[in-house]
Amino acid sequence: MTRITDVKTFFFHGQKATEKRGRNWIFVKVYTDDGFEGVGECFNTGVFGDIAITEVVKGYRQWLLGKDPTMIVYHWQAIYRSSRFPFGLVEMAALSGIEIALWDILGKKCGVPVYKLLGGSCRDKIRAYVSLFVYGETDTPENLAKTAGEVVKLGYTGVKFNPNPPDYWKKTADQIEREAFERVKAVRDAVGDDIFIMLDYAATEYSPANAIKMAKALEPLNPFFLEEPVLWENIDAMAEVKANTKIPIATGERLITIHGFRELIQKRAVDIIQPDPILTGGILETIKIATMADAYYVLVAPHNPFSPIATAVCVNVDACTPNFLIQEYKPDDKPPRSEVVIEPVKFDRGWLQLPTKPGIGIELNEEAFSKYPYKPFERATVIREDGSIGTY
To answer: Do 81 and 27 have their domain in common?
Structure first.
């Protein structure tokens, strides 16, 4: 019987020098005594969370050593249930990365992609969208429109951006609404009526009333969805927004496990859920969440601003999820993203191709790690004009 011999974590500083945020990626590798190596990725939040996640992985390693790597559900339950107290982001990120690595091992041992172990694919390719800030400037309506036009020429059928002006925390709700309309209209005029426009409000609004006003103002521009119109802690507030706009509401990137999504779905507070497999519990937990959503005719658009490993994980989930809608994607054709893996998931004019190699379908290129060492990363603190703390 195959046994786990080691579990290791690796940091990789995955942002281009021109990008403002300096996010690190946390990779997990699980090793076995018969030569199989499973690859996973852990969600990361910033300097303190990054370090804490790697330490938690070391703790989980003690349970896994000497165990059968194919007993994925058993190990997940052993780690999750033995805590006794609720897991938070750090614990779930560590568990998600390990769970993904175990699925990678199982797929390699069976000689098939992970999605085939989960029932096989129900689609031939995966529709992808990109956030505009990845490709160019988004500070003004004019720059947004220019960047959106360039992205559409690459074959994307969907683009996403924050409708808020860059300095939204200095403005009133009415000012934000007016400028948001100008920003979204500029993009709509640039790309036409057939391109999906997704708006990531990023929960920067405390007030459901203001979020509803914003949504109603933007309805004539036909957004594909409005993401996180209010903070995620109050599901009734999210439901209130959804009940008062024609724009489909999307949320879920900050939620963990099926329990985090249950009430959101049951209360009909969302049209599109956005679970992140490297946070919410891994591959199987994301499938469970999607299945629960399917019973309520809620669609799935996984969250994914991370590395090519996370993209491969999402594509395996998307392939076998009947109620999948569209996949968030960052292009992998330039360094450092192109260097972290040996061969990323193939992308062709707006569509991600299904992996054909066993496991999640891609491998880490560890030789590149030394070129992009860990760098401390702290998220910005938003301080409003009156000195109070805002959301970001």
So the answer is: yes
Give the Å distances, CA to CA, from 124 to 113, 121, 336, 353: 14, 7, 28, 8
**Taking 80 as the threshold, does the pLDDT of residue 17 lie above it?**
no
Count, in order, helices (H) and strands (E) of the chain: 13, 13
CA distance 256 to 278: 10
Residues 73 and 67: their CA atoms lie apart, in Å, by 13
- Tens digits of per-residue pLDDT, 309-365? 999 999 999 999 999 999 999 999 999 999 999 999 999 999 999 999 999 999 999
Quick: pLDDT tens for 193-204.
999 999 999 888
CB-based contacts of 53, cutoff 8 Å, min separation 6: 9, 26, 42, 43, 44, 90, 93, 94, 97
Secondary structure of residue 192 in the 3-state scheme: coil
Question: How far apart, in whole angstroms, are the C-alpha atoms of residue 166 and residue 180?
Answer: 10
Query: Cα separations (Å) of 110 from 26, 103, 104, 267, 357?
Result: 26, 10, 10, 40, 11
Residues 138 and 185 in one domain: yes
Report the predicted TM-score, pTM, of the whole model to 2 decimal places: 0.96
In a domain, 142, yes or no: yes
| CA-to-CA separations, 99 to 68, 92, 222, 278, in angstroms, rounded | 13, 10, 39, 9
Q: In terms of domains, do 274 and 164 share one?
A: yes
Dihedral Cα 162, 331, 307, 247, nearest 10 deg: 30
Domains identified in the chain, total number = 2
d(CA 317, CA 321): 6
